[in-house]
Amino acid sequence: MVLVQAIIDGILVGTTYALIGIGFTLIFGVMHKLNLAFAAASIAGAFVSLLAWQQLKDLPVPLVFLVAAAAAGVLGYLIYLTCFRFIPLKSPLATLMATVGMLIFLEEVVTHISDGKAQNFPGMVPEARWVLGPLDLRVDYLLVFAISVAAMLLLLALLYRTRLGIATRAVAQQPVAAQLCGISLDRTNAATFVMSGVLGGLAGAMIGSSAELLSNLLPLQLTVKGLIVTVIGGLGSIPGAIVAGLLVGAFEKGLETWSVLARDLCVMLLVFVFLVAKPAGIFGKLNVRD
Amino acid sequence: MDYLYGLAQTIGVHTILGLSAYVVLQTGQVTMAQAAFFAIGAYISAMLTTVWGVNILIAIPAAALVASVLAGLAGFPALRFKGLMLVVATMALGEAVREFFFNFDYQIAKGDLKVGPAGAEGFRQIRYFYERGWTTAEVALFIWMFVVGIMALLWWMDRSRIGAVLRAVGEDELAAQSVGINLTAVKVSAFAVGGAIAGVGGALYGHYTTHIEHTAFGVLMATFAIAYPILGGLSSVFGTLLAVLFIQGLLIQGLPMLIGGELRNLLFGLLILLAMNVRPRGLIDGRVVRMLRGLFSPRSRHA
Predict the structure, then answer these.
(1) CB contact under 8 A, B280 and A108
(2) Closest listed residue to residue B243, CA positions, set B208, B275, B277, B213
(3) pLDDT per position as a tens digit, B206-221
(4) What is the pTM of this model?
(5) Subunit contact B273:A101, Cβ cutoff 8 A
C-alpha cells in the first residue's frame, strides 16, 4: 500500500517533470537544437518569484506563480537572443556550448540569490490532506497536478487552435517551406522560447511550492531530469514528454520507498534500458538528429 | 612559487580531460561521459597505489586500460544514437558511474589508518606522492610529461590518416560511409582512446589532490571536458590547451585577483557565451591553423 501511495504521489508530482520535458522538446522540435539552459532558466524564474515574495510580504501564491512564469518567459527570450539568434545554425556545437555558458551563468545567479542554501518558498495549502479510503493524498500535490494539466491543455490549444500555433508547427516541420509562406522564423522561434519558458517557470514554482523549499541545487538536477524525460518520451514529441514525465515521477517516488540512495542510480539505468530497447523513445520517430 | 606549480598541475590535468573529449568530438559525437572515465581512472589508480601498494607507473596505465575497455564497451550501445540522444545517453552513463562510486565502499586497515574509498565520504589519504617526498614542482613536472606525451600523440594523429578518418566521420557520416569507412569501428575506437586519456587524467588528478569524492565527477566536470575542445576549436590540439589556459588560468585563477571572486563565476558563463557568439568554431579554427602554417612554412604559401 505504501508503494501504491508513493506511485500515485509520483504521478501527481511527475507532471512538473512533464512540463520541463515539454519545454525541452518544444525547443528541440522547432529549432532542432538543444537548449541546455532551459531548466536552469525555469528555476531562475522561480527564484525571481521568491525574491518578489520576500520583498512584498503577503504576495498571494497564485501571483507568485505568475511572476515565476513571466520571469522564466523573459529569460527564455533572452536565451534565444544570446545563444541562438546570432550564432550560425550550421555549427551545432557552438549553440550547445553557448547554452552551457548560460547554464553556468544562471546557476551562479541562483547561488547568489539563494546564498548557497535552500530557501523557504510559499506553500499552496500546507498540511491539507484528502483521505480516500486507504490512500492519504496531499492536496498540494493534487493542485500541482491540476495546474499542470491545465497548462498542458492551454499549450495544446495554443498549438492547434491559433495562428501562432500553426506557424510553430509549420516551422517545426519544414523551416524553409514555412519561410516561403511568409512565416517569420525569427519571431516563431522566439515565441517558442517564451512559451516553453512560461511552462518551465510554472513548473519551477510548483516544485518549490510543493516542497515549501527551493533548493539551489535544482538547476543541474532538473536539467538532467528534463533531458531524461525528453529522451524517454521521444525527441520532439509532446505526448511522449507527458507520459515520460509521469513515468519518471512514479518510478522515482516508488523507488524512494525502497532506498533513497539507489533512486538516482536506478533512474539512470531506466534511461539506459530505454535507450537500448527503444532508442526512439515512447512516441518518437527514429533518425531524428540535430 | 608553490602556487604556480599547483596551478600548473591543475592546468595539466584539465588539459588531459579536455583532450579526452577532443578525440571523441572530432568524430562529431558530443559525449558527457568523460567525467565518468576520469572518475574510474582516479579510483582505480588510487586503489592500486594506496590499497595494494602498486607503483604509480604501473597504476596509471592500468587505470587507462580499464577506463578504455569500459569506454569501448559503453560505446557500443551508446553509439547507436546521434546528437541529443547521445548527449543524454552518455550523461546517464556518467551519472550512473558517479552514483556507483557514491555507494562504493572498500576499506582496509593500514597501520592505524583505514584507507580506501568510503562511499559518500570519498577516498581520502591518497598519499603516494607525499610518502615518497615528491615536491609540488616534481609532481607538476610528472603531470606535464603525460600532457606533452598525449598532445604529441594527438598532434601526430591529427596529421596522419587516422585524423583524416576521424574528421571525415565528424563532418559527414554518410560521405564517410560511402568511401568505405566503418563508422562503428571509428566511433568506438575514438571512444576507447578518449576513455584511456580520461583514465590517465583521472589517475593524475586523484594523486595530486590526495582526496577524491563522487561529487567532483558530476555533470559539471563532464561539461568542462567538452567545453575545452569546443571553446578552443577542433582544428588543433593547441586549441584545447589554449581554452584550458583561458578558463583555468585566466577566468578561475586570474580574475579573482583582479575583480574578486564574487563576480568571477558570473563572468565565466557570460564569457563562454560571448566566445561562442564571436567565434562559433572555436578560438583556434581552421583559418587560424592555415594562417599559422603559412607563417611557419612561407614557401608553401606562395606555391
Answers:
(1) no
(2) B275
(3) 998 888 888 888 888 8
(4) 0.83
(5) yes
